[in-house]
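Sequence in, structure out. Go.
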Amino acid sequence: QVQLVESGGGLVQAGGSLRLSCTASGRTFSRYAMAWFRQAPGKAREFVAAIDWSGFSTHYAESVKGRFTISRDNAKNTVNLRMNSLKPEDTAVYYCNAHRSIVSDYWGQGTQVTVST
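Output:
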């Protein structure tokens, strides 16, 4: 069992930056690929960014490529999402995900990010 707690969301003006963090419980954090998803009002949850267990391989949605950076610290059981040049369309609830297999897939409760014009 892995429990995930996100933090760092908030209100920011367009063009600004935010850093989201996700802290995981348990001693097996380094065995999980980690990802961030987001869900805007009235829309389906969508993939944002992912990082493999080692931290050397990352993948981004086209909409955030070049603006967002995902990183992880296995010693601290954390994964971060640095978001720069934020746009109003980035407004959503951001969720942290830990994935190892179909039966080992966990979600956080989400953190709200609101980007104003």
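Check: The mean pLDDT is 96. The radius of gyration is 13 Å.
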